[in-house]
Amino acid sequence: MNKGILKFLACILLLTSCQDLIEPAQENNRQLDPNAYLPSDSRFPFGILLNGYNRIPSNSWSFNDVATDDAVTNDQNNGYLKMATGQWTANNNPANQWTNCYAGIQYMNIMLGEVDKVKWVADPVASKLFAMRIKGEAFGIRALLMYNLLQAHAGVGKGGNMLGVPILTKTQTTSDNFNLPRASFDDCIKQIYTDLDSADVRLPLDYLNLVSGQESQIPTKYGSVTIEQYNRAFGVTFSGLLSGRIAKAIRAKVALLAASPAFNPNNANKWVDAANYSAQVLNLNGGINAITSNVASGLTWYSNTAEIAALKDGANPPEILWRNNWGENRDLEQANFPPTLFGNGRINPTQNLVDAFPTVNGFPISDPSSGFNPNDPYSNRDPRLKMFILVNGATAGVNNTAINTAADGTTNDGLNKVATSTRTGYYMRKLLRQDVNLNPTSSTNQRHYKPHIRYTEIALSYAEAANEAWGPTGTGTNAYSAFDILRAIRRRAGIGLANNDAYLESIKNNKEQMRQLIRNERRLELCFEGFRFWDLRRWDANLTEAAKGVSIRSGAYTVLPSVESRVFQNYMKYGPIPYSEVLKYSALEQNQGWN
Fold this sequence. Notes:
There is one protein chain. The protein has 595 residues and is mainly alpha-helical. The protein is 39% helix and 8% strand. It is built from 21 helices and 14 strands. Strands 1-6 form a two-stranded antiparallel sheet. Helix 6 runs antiparallel to helix 8 (244-259). It starts with a helix and ends in an 11-residue tail after the last helix. Residues 59-208 form the SusD-like N-terminal domain. This is RagB/SusD family nutrient uptake outer membrane protein.
């Protein structure tokens, strides 16, 4: 899409520092020559594929929560803070995925054009299997990048039509026409599904080693191959790469986006598709039983020390469907621990989010049946509240230090004490390992990883879609309902155990109330993982609810009604096409409202 990207890609493909792979070495000029694709240098084309993996947006934390009603930040240079406070424009867009994703798509198109020319290994049968797998990965990554483009840039054009982005399925060269119109949103969804079909038909469900006697377990789509040949291409060595299971999960994510109100005014069949695609993924993991059987893993996957320490490369804990590589570091803690623990307190949850957690009996705190006590607001609450949010008086860090966030407190952890203090009266606790020590005299790192997809996300997607398709207790052709999913997730969290979750029971026949509860559970379970910003937009929900906080003085709690305003216009439920692209290409239509 961008000629600058194309020039960059051309440089990557032509230059390498590995002198033993090319001839003559003095020129260091590596051409896409199929006659040069020997088994010894298949790393070169495989590097093209890895560039697609490197551009998956979920490789890193975005913390776009600070542009929503869930959080603020004390980092005044944060791009999402600027978006939320009125500085979001088509040429100043921290949520922009245009350049990144189209660069990745260009790499995948190059890979798809070259993959069959490569001698991946000396054995021709095994080489063909490698080609099938890598082609499947490329189709899957292209689909995932297109999904992220739609999430960030699809919207209503100035002509009133729901538009996606230009569809690119072949490598762009310098002689191609770059002035391409946007395809319709529905055509983009169809292309993603086509790519996922192409991935699924080539990829194994999971990367596993088979042993002698298991020849019958080799999928028939791979033809007559030996165990050794199969394992060379699809064995456990490749765990962590895109698989058939992952392709199915991506389809579920895409279907939920396509069914959502902002993109789907009246097609009920899209909700049915979204529910069924999510169910397919859940059923591969044991269905609803997987939610209740992996309680600790599902709730505190980020801090289960023994589970994380035992992770092998590419292996996943029960809660995680796909993740990036783990690393030993303390980056999240350095950014988000409170000041007395030597952190920068960057992400501050809002009172809005705190209020979204019910009491332990399952009732919203606004309901008289909840038993909520505003003078003791953190007692008898949903256990996830103190798991995910550091409230006043709770402990944190290697020494279980009590954190005082009160405005009249005596430490820098208190409200607005210093630049790194909380602005809301709360600090983020989720994602952080409390066994990290930031003290400069005895600092320690710990193992972390970033999920791409969690099974809880897919379960909540099923609940949302099933409720819209069939109502709270309807199942379609599946074995469980939206109600069943919500009951399992809430019980896993420890909600409503003493009263059979009376609140959930009271709304089981009300589609609208169930919709609000599902959205709230999604808000709680997935907080700080980069969902709220996109969820509010695809729901066509209110974007302008001010971020609230709490001021605690002499033990009295006073809600701060507007720690930070949210300045969004209605058209901002859709992100803009980059201003530079619209200037360059007359066929590229901007979304309504954006200049």
